[in-house]
Amino acid sequence: MKKIVVTGCGQLGSKVVEDASKKFEVVVVDKAVMNLTGNKFYQIDITDKGKIAEVIEKFNPSCVIHTAAIVDVDFCEENKDLAWKVNVEGTRNIAEICRKNDIKMVYFSTDFIFDGKMGDYREDDKPNPLSVYGRTKLEGEEAVKSGCSDYLICRTAVPYGLNPAKKSNFGLWVIEKLKNNEKINVFTDQINSPTFIDDFSMALSKLIEINASGTYNVTGSEAISRYEFARKVVKIFGFDEDLVNPIISDQLRQKAQRPKNASLNIDKITKLGIKMSNIEEGLTKLKSQMVG
Predict the structure, then answer these.
(1) Cα separation of 91 and 79, whole Å?
(2) Cβ atoms within 10 A of the Cβ of 134, count?
(3) Which residue, among 57, 76, 56, has the nearest Cα to 66 in the 3D structure?
(4) Cβ distance 103 to 165 under 8 Å?
(5) Digit-coded pLDDT (tens) for 1-30
(6) Of the candidates 58, 82, 66, which has an alpha carbon nearest to the alpha carbon of residue 153?
(7) Contact present, 146 and 208 (Cβ < 8 Å)
(8) Is 245 within the bounds of a domain?
(9) CB 109, CB 154: distance < 8 Å
(10) To the nearest 10°, the Cα dihedral for 39, 96, 1, 209?
(11) In this structure, what CATH number is given to the domain that contains residue 184?
């Protein structure tokens, strides 16, 4: 049975742990205390290289899935040193441990490594991050590439859906607000490729099964603005469309600059037979989960 270490147990990490545990023996490492039934858990900060090396080397996995990161974009902008320590130095620690022990490393990256001037970015397009968060994730990618002989980088965007960690996300936020008849302001000028969490976990599993290496965009199949996404939620869930108010990003003072069109091209994974949902498909699946 294949053995896997997962760092981080947020919305994506917890879903990966849940699904991977059905096939593999999984050990989880996270800074926070987690209640993970059936999985070994170690409370360790990834910036503590000695402690995390001890766990990985003792378990001797065939793969380390590195999801641990600070992902709050505005928090990173105001806490540059901490963001760098966790997202770059922590990632470099994992990469060096994997290289030393001949272990494959899987790293989760983001569409925010791009400046958003073009959209439909392919894996080999030149990055140009606008924010501290984007820069730290790009530096993390470089640490993985230079530090590992065998790696898989999965770039994703705007994950939405239910997750075992019960973390909120943009999709759940929209649903909760509209369900409570609260009006929301949503950007018309920020375009991404939102990713149904279940699809991401499925795609990652397939990439690991075929021993894929290199960089892959792993997102939903549809590029859409935050406003249009919210309108799709209205359509699928039957909410009041008047509750969704379109605004442009200049109307709010966000601490970190966001790319205007950071949509990712997924032809590379599609050619492998991996099917990612469009927004209506993903939201329809989510609705069935929430009422089921």
Answers:
(1) 17
(2) 27
(3) 56
(4) no
(5) 589 999 998 899 999 999 988 888 999 988
(6) 66
(7) no
(8) yes
(9) yes
(10) 110
(11) 3.90.25.10
Q: Counting runs of H as helices and runs of E as strands, what totals does the chain give?
A: 11, 13
Q: Are 65 and 246 in contact (CB under 8 A)?
A: no
272, part of any domain: no
pLDDT in tens, 46-73: 899 999 999 999 999 999 999 999 999 9
Q: Letter for the amino acid at 235?
A: K
Please indicate, yes or no, whether the overall pTM of this predicted structure exceeds 0.70: yes
Residue 271 lies in a domain: no
The tokens describing 142, both together, are: 């470089």
Q: How many domains does the chain have?
A: 2
Burial of 50 (0-12, 13-18, 19+ CB in 10 A): exposed
List, in sequence order, every beta strand (DSSP E) within the chain. 3-7, 25-30, 40-43, 63-66, 104-110, 151-156, 159-160, 184-187, 191-192, 195-196, 214-217, 224-225, 244-247
Residues 38, 72: one domain? yes
Six-digit token string for 6: 């997962």
**Dist. CA 217–CA 97, nearest whole Å:** 25
Beta strand 25-30 with 3-7: parallel, antiparallel or unpaired?
Answer: parallel
Identify whether 94 is part of a domain.
yes
* Beta carbons of 268 and 216 less than 8 angstroms apart: yes
173 and 34 in one domain?
A: no
